[in-house]
Write a structure and sequence with these properties.
alpha/beta; 882 residues; globular; 6-stranded mixed β-sheet; single chain; 57% helix; 5-stranded mixed β-sheet; 34 helices; 16 strands
Length: 882
């Protein structure tokens, strides 16, 4: 069913309900806006009827975000009910632009682009209208000029962030074009006012003030990244003088004067705080902002958050100009307040507050403060990205995460404060969750979200958010009592924990309103719970070293994660290890690499030996004798066989030792992926074997298959309680494979696979001929029953090699589709190696052993029995899941 049809049916259903709840009012507004967006010259019957109901909405139902004053004024005024013509078209376009701009406030770049496009179109309607028609819509053209200029300035400000990247997605000229067009819109609006006859009209006075306010905003942006040049000082002075003349407007104003006055205060401070501004101007800016923040009638939280952010910037400039360190401390307080209030009202402001604070701290060499600020930003990231749609919208935040996250995590991991180490885990978890969602393409547009029923996972996300709010509120109350009882004049060690609780609580309240609880990262309590059965090991690597953080279970609630410093693990080391593995893959047996002078087996042994010495040995010391643990590696670490780390530098196999002989290691894209998989592990009663007919695989050079040996080994290990089905090679197809996932407990695939590291959604399994089952097909699968999959094909565990695809691969897709775990390969595999390994694995697994432990025992068995001595043969197999 098309989204438009669904909107009509939903509108009719709502209109058939005699009494609307607050949620019904919210649904009615969204449905109305969706119907209005059809671009027709007149509203549909359903849209008009919805407006009638919304005009008379009781005050008790007008909750935040349900129907704002501007929308209601438009409904009550009847402008959208006008007959077809320029006036009706103009009002419809500016209304929809207002709706899109409201959505853009939360960081949705696509909505901002849509609002700009709608205002541009409305200007075209004005230009095409005759003089009589223009007189009927005079107020709308003033509003359109001003709104378009402001939106273009906002987009310019956002796009400036791209220009600091090594490979920006747009040129400086493209970015500046928005600011230039914005100034032209302001000048066009000012010219219209000069030609207007009725200069005493109160509404026109408000429009004039709005133009002055937006012009000030644009002027502050114009000089934000450059020192004042010739003429810039006089332009800024003129801007300041104009803003000073805009009068105060009280709350409850319906003309727009209130919002105009609030905006002028912040823009006035920004104009006064331009780079190179004299100390007197900076102090004046501070006075303006403090007067605004101390106003008893200021209740608009988004304005307060923005004002606190401007105050923080002003005070940092004062600290630089006066060398007075008190300003730096005051600035940090303002950054924190902006973050806390922004987390409740405008996530973009919260993100800006944290990243700007990190930028100041990084500039001044305060590494730990930088890390803490970045960690706070990464806590906002999942919910902020939830409001955005296209991948292009997210590049700025993802690029910052790629640059700052490893440094942030390592610095916090090495901190002596428990709260810092917890924040490191939460930052890693949040960023990994964002990458998973973006890489898998899980974000749908607004229409798709509205048309879909609330999923079970959404309801569960809401419940998790509610529980988190309850737990955090209780914890905050406990800490406040401790603070009150603490002796005056002595240091209270709970301050960091209280600040963290306040930040988390603000974010949780935001999630409870916008429905982003489903996609946000788990909180510390939940991560600890998920680590109860097996420790979670977070791994990160930066240019100057790596770190691990081990979450061991309930004791971690008190002690936090256990830090492991890995100074030898650098990005350069990881790339060299990966290069050796890639070299090993292209070599033949006993052939020596021209680059390294080593055989395939020797190169693989070098890699797993280095992984033991540089990564896993200190981690193993923390894990002790635990039977299994889950690794959560970040970035390129996910492409290395960490599970196979061991001591094998000696020529004597008897002197070799591998960590999997003591502790089985599995993988997970992030802890949240273990939520559903960790609940219960179903009994295995049905096993389906799939082996496509031999065929050339897109010209790839795949090893030959001995399917019979592998199938025979699996069958011999199967207990009588497990029913086995087999899909004949000539019957293997995408439909049959997807159907098997709906009807079996375990799917065992033996065949060929391929990896597209640049576009992992296209990675997949070959099904014979030209047929393939790709990652994107698995993500779209519905009604999956299978709990496990064994993918005995080359490279089926390989993920993408760049953001945001570094967590995307077949195992992740299958877990997202509902499976508990997947066994897959990190490089090529051969059936003469695979058959004995799979035989041992099934013997252990199907009698009740955890699959990761069963795989580790199987790998140890074939090694010690001399069947598969070299790690290249057995280490390619890894388990991902709970």
């Amino acid at each position: 069913m098309a989204a438009e049809e669904y909107a009509v049916l939903r509108a009719r259903a709502l209109l058939g309900v005699s009494y609307w709840t607050q949620q019904d009012y919210a649904d009615a507004v969204r449905t109305h806006d969706e119907l209005e967006e059809r671009g027709e010259d007149t509203s549909s019957v359903e849209a008009r009827e919805l407006r009638k109901r919304l005009r008379t909405a009781p005050e008790s139902m007008l909750g935040p975000g349900v129907i704002d004053g501007a929308r209601r004024a438009r409904f009550v005024g009847g402008q959208l009910d006008l007959p077809s013509g320029p006036a009706r078209r103009m009002y419809s376009l500016t209304y929809l632009a207002m709706v899109r701009l409201h959505q853009a406030v939360a960081g949705n770049r696509q909505s901002l682009d849509a609002a700009i496009s709608l205002w541009r179109t409305s200007l075209g309607v004005w230009e095409a209208a005759d003089e009589a028609e223009r007189s009927a819509i005079g107020s709308e053209i003033h509003s359109a000029d001003c709104s378009l200029a402001g939106a273009l300035g906002t987009r310019y400000n956002l796009n400036r962030e791209f220009l600091v990247h090594p490979d920006p997605p747009m040129s400086p000229d493209e970015v500046r074009a928005d600011l230039e067009e914005a100034f032209r819109a302001i000048e066009r609006g000012a010219a219209r006012f000069r030609s207007h006859r009725d200069g005493a009209d109160p509404q026109l006075q408000v429009f004039r003030q709005q133009l002055q306010t937006v012009k000030a905003y644009l002027s502050s942006l114009k000089y934000a990244d450059m020192p004042p040049g010739p003429g810039s000082g006089s332009e800024l002075r003129a801007t300041v003088a104009e803003l000073d003349l805009i009068p105060y407007a009280p709350p409850g104003d319906t003309t727009g004067a209130r919002l105009t006055w609030l905006g002028t205060r912040i823009f006035l401070a920004q104009a006064l705080s331009s780079p190179g501004a004299p100390i007197s101007d900076l102090r004046r800016a501070e006075e303006v902002l403090l007067a605004l923040l101390n106003a008893p009638d200021l209740t608009e939280e988004s304005v307060i958050a923005a004002a606190q952010l401007s105050l923080a910037t002003t005070r940092m400039l004062l600290a630089d100009s006066t060398a007075d360190e008190r300003y730096r401390s005051l600035a940090q307080d303002a950054f924190e307040q902006s973050y806390l209030i922004g987390a409740r009202s405008n996530l973009r402001t919260a993100w800006d507050a944290a990243t700007q604070q990190a930028g100041w701290a990084r500039r001044d060499g305060h590494r730990l403060e930088t890390a803490r600020a970045y960690a706070a930003a990464f806590r906002v990231l999942p919910a902020l990205i939830h409001t955005q749609i296209t991948r292009a919208d997210k590049e700025s935040a993802l690029a910052m995460a790629a640059d700052a996250l490893p440094l942030c995590a390592r610095e916090l991991a090495n901190s002596s404060a428990t709260e810092d180490r917890i924040e490191a885990v939460l930052a890693l978890e949040g960023a990994r969750g964002v990458l998973l969602a973006e890489g898998l393409g899980l974000r749908a547009g607004p229409a798709a979200d509205r048309a879909a029923p609330r999923s079970t996972s959404t309801v569960e996300g809401d419940a998790r958010t509610a529980r988190a709010i309850e737990n955090l509120t209780r914890e905050l109350d406990r800490l406040r009592r401790q603070e009150l009882a603490h002796p005056a004049g002595t240091e209270w060690k709970g301050a960091a924990r209280m600040a963290a609780c306040q930040r988390q609580l603000a974010l949780m309240h935001s999630r409870s309103r916008d429905g982003s609880g489903e996609v946000t990262a788990p909180e510390w309590q939940e991560i600890v719970t998920l680590a109860k059965d097996a420790p979670l090991v977070y791994l990160t690597v930066a240019m100057d070293g790596g770190a691990a953080l081990v979450v061991t279970g309930e004791e971690s609630l008190r002690t936090g994660p256990i830090p492991v410093d890995l100074p030898a693990l650098t990005v350069g080391v990881v790339r060299r290890l990966l290069d050796r593995l890639r070299e090993a893959e292209v070599l033949q047996d006993r052939q020596k690499s021209q680059k390294y002078g080593r055989t395939r087996g020797q190169l693989t042994r070098d890699v797993v030996n280095d992984l033991w010495e540089q990564v896993m040995q200190p981690v193993a010391d923390v894990l002790g004798d635990c039977e299994r643990a889950v690794l959560l590696p970040g970035g390129l670490l996910g492409l290395l066989p960490l599970h196979a780390a061991g001591k094998c530098a000696s020529q004597q196999v008897d002197e070799w030792w591998f960590l999997l002989e003591r502790t089985a290691l599995s993988y997970a894209p992030h802890a949240a992926a273990l939520r559903s998989a960790a609940r219960n592990r179903p009994a295995i009663t049905r096993l389906t074997l799939v082996h496509p007919a031999p065929a050339s695989a897109r010209g790839a050079n795949h090893p030959s298959l001995d399917v019979a040996a592998e199938m025979s080994g699996v069958k011999s290990a199967r207990p009588t309680s497990v029913t086995m089905a087999e899909i004949a090679p000539e019957q293997v197809s995408k439909a049959r494979l997807l159907d098997a996932l709906r009807t079996t407990d375990v799917l065992h695939f033996t065949g060929h696979g391929d990896v597209d590291s640049g576009n992992p959604l296209s990675s997949g399994l070959h099904l014979g001929g030209d047929a393939r089952l790709e990652v994107r097909d698995l993500l779209a699968a519905r009604g999956v029953r299978a709990a496990f999959a064994v993918l005995s094909a080359c490279g089926t565990a390989v993920t993408g090699d760049a953001l945001p695809d570094e967590v995307v691969g077949l195992p992740t897709a299958l877990i997202q589709a509902g499976l508990h775990g997947v066994i897959a390969t990190q490089w090529m595999c051969f059936d003469n190696f695979t058959a004995p390994l799979m035989t041992e694995f099934y013997r252990w697994w199907l009698v009740g052993t955890h699959p990761s432990v069963a795989l580790a025992r199987a790998q140890a068995t074939v090694l010690r029995q001399g069947l598969l001595v070299n790690p290249f043969a057995w280490a390619t197999f890894a388990y991902t899941g709970a």
